[in-house]
Amino acid sequence: MALKVAIVGLPNVGKSTLFNALTQTAAAQAANYPFCTIEPNVGEVAVPEPRLDALAKIAGSKEIIPARITFVDVAGLVRGAAQGEGLGNQFLANIRDCDAIALVARCFVDTEITHVEGRIDPLADLDIIETELMIADLDSLEKRVPALEKRAKGGDKEALANLRLAKLALEALSAGRPARSVKVAEEDQKAWRMLQLLTTKPALYVANVDEASASTGNEYSALVAERAVRDGAKTVVISAQIESEIAMLDPDERTEFLETLGLEEPGLNRLIREAYALLGLRTYFTAGPKESRAWTIPVGATGPQAAGVIHTDFEKGFIRAETIAFHDYVRLNGEAGARDAGKLRAEGKDYVVQDGDVMNFRFNV
Fold first, then answer.
1. Strand 345-347 vs strand 291-298: parallel, antiparallel, or unpaired?
2. How many whole angstroms separate alpha carbon 71 and alpha carbon 137?
3. Calpha distance 318→307 (Å, rounded)
4. Does pLDDT of 311 surpass 60?
5. Residues 6+ positions from 32 with CB-CB distance below 8 Å
6. Cα separation of 302 and 268, whole Å?
């Protein structure tokens, strides 16, 4: 399954620098003035997965295919964006197609880089972004409610259900709370998603710090972390400037550079892990002489659903999934060893796939 994350923030907080680093490209123009990103830049990167290398070595795979994640660099929002200020609604619309939002807050001081609000206050940055998203949602719902009310009076059951959910969202938004704060019953989840509200999307707070604070964070990033706990969001501390430098290095130089900074891995790895956790995702693998590949599925996915990620025919004609836990596959040196040791399991339609499962599907079309 595809995963798309919008990188959102005020101008000059380091969004485009982070995007450049994440995608290892210079596609986004990181310049010291607002609205330098005129169109949303889209970049796709591999999800770091060291387990794939171990699988490929054992299986003798000719190719390694990691899962991928798409980042969308949305132009800087400003106060009043929901009313069309700056580049306004054009960019709010770009967020709707994404699965999650990474809200970048400026947690560094640099007198040579202007701040659109004339101050360094990461919590105020987050407040402005969240407020603009909530205003956009309010506007969207207020325009839709009259039509829903008309259809509901005519006995349209779907409209009646949607109207009930819309009013729940309006109540929260009017009270200054994002729509994600509303508790929605499981049977209403699909209709709730169809409202396409910006503030229902899971939020990841990215504290962009200076180079010296990359490994430990600073007083500003600590405030962001506290805010994330309060809001039920995830948080990551990253130095976008360091990430952009790391992206230009070869693997050996990268390891040495990270060590000098007291970092165990690039911020990209942490960012993707948190995005996965935020969206409730996990990884399973297929491995063989042709390729070793990582596949992304939601937590709780069954064998047929996991098979359907590869091809819909696999799900429709699912018979069983021959499954080996990753640690057993490595410990027993592959499929043959796992089979001999009784660690290869034949799992049926009700099996819930576990993170790291190495799977081979049997199906009939």
1. unpaired
2. 22
3. 8
4. yes
5. 12, 112, 113, 114
6. 29
